[in-house]
Give the backbone structure.
Amino acid sequence: MAKVICAENDIRRRAWTGVALGAMTLLAACASSPNSLTDLTHIDTAQGSEENIASLTAVIERSPNDPEAYNIRGSAYGRAGRYREALEDFNRAIALDPTSYRAYANRALIHRYMGNQQSALADYNQAITLNPRYDVAYIGRGELYRLAGRTQEAFRDFERAIQLDTTDPRAYHRRGLLYQASGQHQFAIEDFTKAISLAPSQPYGYNGRGISYLALGDDENAFADFNTAIRLDENLAESWANQALVYERRGEPDKAARSYARAASLDPDYIPAREGLARTRNASTVASRS
């Protein structure tokens, strides 16, 4: 069971109340891997390939005092999962330009991935101090708060990014997760729909919206969303597990078991897949014996 207590925001979104939601309703929607929606969105050239990193290193060799060169290469290292090298580059970028709010926000993300949550928070705070209109920093700090269970602060940060007219889908997706966890599924659906409009090729908004459709008893739209998520990325365990849940609710344990099995093969540690597979296999065995 998951219980989330949130705060009053505006007239349209009345005071949030603690709502206990079953694990089968939430499934994967509240889980978010660090790279679920690309965080270093403002560095288009930083794709993390060895070729890109080599070319960025050549730029630094030509301009060793250019802070933005280190910031961009640090982002490339971050995308490649080379976090220590990324941290070194962001440290260098900030040493060369202490007013670089982008470098602080990027370094914050690396600290978060490395488990240095307090350092990440300090860097997000500094980025916002340097530029109070930097939406990326609010979204990053909001996600830090969300993962720490500080839902009121997370909501305020996502809301602030949205008020700044962000075009970053993460703000809507993650505010949607908060609405969903509090049982406000219509608001969650609105936010997931907006996130989808901003990033139609990403599966996460479809998975989130599908979960809220399920909670409202709209299995048809939920199934359509989960199938779309699978078409967009067939290697995402939560999409298959969500599809399986609809089959299970329809009384089709064989189809559900196949989808749960696919999810478990993609991520053996994914608890909803393991539990769903055991549940539906047992149901299929009972049905075959009767």
In short: Residues 237 and 266 are 6 Å apart (CA to CA). Residues 43-149 form a domain with the Serine Threonine Protein Phosphatase 5, Tetratricopeptide repeat fold (CATH 1.25.40.10). The longest helix spans residues 271-289.
